[in-house]
Design goal:
Elements lengths: L1 E5 L2 E6 L5 E7 L13 H11 L7 E6 L4 E7 L1 H16 L6 H11 L7 H10 L19 H11 L5 E6 L30 E5 L4 E7 L5 H21 L6 E9 L2 E8 L6 H18 L3 H15 L4 H15 L6 H9 L3 H11 L4 E5 L11 E2 L5 E2 L6 E3 L3 H6 L6 E4 L3 E5 L5 E5 L3 E6 L6 E5 L4 E4 L1 H4 L1 H10 L20
Parallel strand pairs: 2-6, 7-11, 7-12
Antiparallel strand pairs: 1-2, 3-5, 3-6, 4-5, 8-10, 8-11, 9-10, 13-17, 14-15, 15-16, 16-17, 18-19, 19-20
Helix pairs in contact: 1-2, 1-3, 1-5, 6-7, 6-8, 6-11, 7-11, 8-10
């Protein structure tokens, strides 16, 4: 692998191919948005691609949770034209195509469904950082042109980019990106946690999330692989309860890594899979793996690094790390670290991570959770309604309709809502992420950073309740994805 610089952008390249595969990577993704601007990075990516001329070149782009990449494979001169075209488009986006590309995003279904991993991240971080991937937000169609241009000007710059190239590096390549340093990424603050917790989510599948301040800890990586293999043997091969066991690693910073283990489940057997997942993890924390299990995990990495495109994967990893500001670890170093791992190392690494564990299970299953593990609701809840001004639906509605047996409390500290099931949700004013008008434009949904959503509508609580909420939330948080004639307080 060779490292050069083109127009201030680090370039990682290697030969060995007749045709060129290259990718321009930026250190920006879904984690760098807010609830109100969800999909802005994806929209920038679509606008840049839409500005390019028609081509038979194999090319595409992808926006992930923490990076965005534009890639192509073909003759070197065609790849060069693609990369230079992307750079020019990012410097002057064709924002006249915003409405059309927002429609394309809707068709793509980019925010149609949340995944188990997204639910795990949201359980840790709420509607911040990677937790934002649990929501589709107001929608790309409501993003303003100045918001999109400002996002591109901040993130799609030379200091936040890197290029990798497998095959001939195009002669005369230029990368005319806008000048700019790498922006400082906001680190999401995790919810306080004194030990392992479990929670219910509205997505299928069972997930286990672990955090570590040692991203280079090979023992934890081996431990997750061993846990996955044990689960595959037990849940799929032995009992026929599951089809797939997957893991995903996300580095939020050089000293913060999130590792997720996700297991799907046969319909109606989620509780058994959840119990197996936790017991497998707990056993490894208590006893560690066998030497044979460690050796099998190490052999798996060796096979992965011996694949045909291993060079391309290492180039991509180097460019990703350069674009995101993370330390790059060559494959040979990673392999050496895995070879040095012992069963005791794995046990100790998993024990260190155990207090950070979040176990997520579907909310449709009947299960009381693992013994000794505290259940933590996915959103912010309170033991009871706090003091404050109380608003309720009219008495006749409460008598006739069980769904109307709710209450709203507005205080100086925040908003509280008791739902029809008796659960109390609390939203401190400082944690309000947005006010989104209801479909009829007469009420609002208060969106909390802690995942609570409380609808305040005058037909349910009266106009005074709506005014009390709207008056206490900064106007900048009011999002208007409805028609221009929205009225938050009805006339008359």
């Amino acid at each position: 692998m060779q490292r050069t610089v083109v127009d201030g952008v680090p370039v990682f390249s290697a030969g060995g191919r007749e045709r060129t595969t290259a990718a321009l990577v930026f250190g920006v993704g879904l984690r760098d948005e807010t609830f109100a601007t969800i999909e802005v990075t994806h929209l920038v990516e679509h606008l840049a691609m839409a500005a390019l001329p028609r081509t038979h070149l194999r090319c595409n782009a992808v926006t992930d949770v923490d990076s965005t990449a534009f890639f192509a494979t073909g003759r070197p001169e065609a790849v060069r034209a693609f990369l230079e075209g992307v750079c020019r488009a990012l410097a002057d986006l064709p924002t006249e195509r915003m409405a059309a590309e927002a429609g394309v995003l809707q068709a793509e279904g980019c925010g149609a469904a949340s995944s188990t991993v997204s639910a795990l991240w949201a359980a840790r971080y709420g509607l911040t950082g990677p937790g934002l991937t649990v929501s589709s937000g107001p929608g790309a169609e409501y993003l303003a042109e100045d918001t999109v241009r400002a996002h591109a000007a901040r993130w799609f710059v030379r200091g936040n980019a890197a290029l990798w190239c497998h095959g001939p590096l195009p002669a005369g390549l230029r990368l005319p990106l806008p000048e700019g340093p790498r922006p400082v990424r906001r680190l999401p603050v995790p919810r306080p946690q004194d030990g392992p917790v479990w929670t219910r989510t509205d997505v299928p599948g069972v997930g286990l999330l672990l955090a570590t301040d040692r991203p280079g800890d090979a023992a934890l990586a081996v431990g997750v692989q061993v846990a996955g293999e044990r689960l595959r043997d037990r849940a799929r091969h032995d009992r026929g309860l599951s089809y797939a066991v997957d893991s995903l690693t996300l580095d939020l910073a050089a000293d913060r890594r999130e590792v997720a283990l996700v297991v799907d489940a046969r319909s109606g057997r989620d509780a058994e899979v959840a119990d197996l997942t936790w017991r497998t993890f707990a056993e490894l924390c208590a006893e560690g793996p066998s030497p044979e299990e460690v050796a099998h995990a190490v052999a798996g990495l060796e096979a992965e690094l011996d694949e045909e495109d291993a060079v391309g994967a290492e180039l991509a990893d180097a460019a990703y790390c350069a674009a995101t500001g993370l330390p790059f670890r060559p494959a040979v170093e990673t392999m050496a670290a895995w070879h040095a791992v012992t069963p005791a190392d794995v046990r100790d690494a998993l024990r260190r991570a155990e207090p950070t564990a979040v176990l997520a299970v579907p909310d449709t299953m009947a299960w009381d959770g693992p013994d000794g593990v505290v259940r933590r609701p996915l959103c912010g809840t309170l033991p009871q309604l706090p003091d404050g001004v109380v608003f309720r639906p009219p008495l006749h509605r409460r008598l006739l309709d069980p769904a109307a047996r709710v209450a709203l409390v507005v205080s100086d500290e925040g908003l509280a809502h008791r739902d029809a099931d008796g659960d109390v949700h609390g939203v401190p004013w400082s944690r309000v992420e947005a006010l989104v008008p209801t479909d009829d434009g007469r009420g609002v949904t208060v969106v909390s950073r802690d995942l609570c959503c409380v609808q305040v509508h005058p037909d349910l609580y009266g106009r005074r309740a709506l005014a009390a909420v709207v008056d206490r939330v900064p106007g900048a948080l009011l999002r208007l994805p409805a028609a221009a004639d929205v009225q938050l307080v009805p006339a008359g």
